[in-house]
Amino acid sequence: MTGDGQRTRDFHFPALVNGLDFLVGAVRSLSGDNGQPGPRDVKYAVLHLQAAVETLLKARLEMHSPELVWTKVGAFDQRKHEAGDFSSCSVKTALERLHETVQIESTIDPEEDSLKQLGNLRNRIMHFGWKDTVVAVQARTIPVLDLLVSFVNTDVLPHVDQPAEAWSAEQQMEQVRAGFKHLTDFIALRMRGVRGQLEGYEHATAACRSCGQFAVVLDGGAHDLVCLLCGKQYGTGEEAAWEFIGASKHVSIQDGGGDLDGCGTCGAYAVIMTPLANSPEEDSWVCFGCGSSFEGVCTFCGQATDLVPGMEDMCSDCYEIRFDNF
């Protein structure tokens, strides 16, 4: 007994229980009260979700063979492993080993973009500072939660040998499923609220860099582009285009680079390749200044326009000039 009469409790979190505890905490923080968590809740939700990803993947590796958790498999030492005195593998390496060595049924791709985005978000929070909207983070984490819930259900729970641990894990997953449904219902409700503003503009709607949802309408030459779901503000079409490619016009020119490609419709230098709502699985040439989409960019004049049939890199104007000169 302790001095205050309270019985001491052991600190014991096996790898799987620990990973699921991080996952429960992340979902609980993301859901909040009526889908409205505070900024601090969301910050810790991201940190806990990233920890859940790493811990759950490595817990599954350890079920198969503990040395697979080590960065250098051949250096495995049981005593150091139990003491935590080693470097563990990255998330990407863990997924590769789960596919190649453990041969799990999960379809999580080692190059999965949602996991990369979560890792980047976690790094910004930890090292560089961070500014975003709560809804953006909620929406951005849903794909990761979906992957983890499927992974645990399919590839983890069926392989838990200890009945007590299996029961505990199932209880934790019940909390995760309930919180996940609450979160997805909330985001779906928000999307339904802006659906009327998105309908008919699928050809000129890009996916938000913050929340990942196709809710940034480019049509109409708006000077202040904004995500209709999370409220992320991008400024002008040109500013938005540079942000979408993760670069800066000033830095590009300073380093000897050039401007973005020009638009054959409005003349703005704001043409990039990005997925659009009407073709989410492939990149399309689109102008962020007016929303016009194109077949490609002429390599001779640098303008985005319809290209000459059979000529994949030349517009009709440049073709006529070259033909006349010839």
Can you describe what's shown?
- This protein has 326 residues and is mainly alpha-helical.
- The protein is built from ten helices and ten strands.
- The protein has helices spanning 15-31, 39-64, 78-83, 91-102, 113-128, 134-156, 163-198, 237-244, 249-254, 316-325, and strands at 205-207, 214-217, 225-226, 233-235, 262-263, 271-276, 279-287, 293-294, 296-297, 303-305.
- The strands form four sheets. It has a three-stranded mixed sheet, with no helix packed on it.
- The longest helix is centred in the middle third of the chain and has 36 residues, at 163-198.
- The chain is elongated, with a radius of gyration of 25 Å.
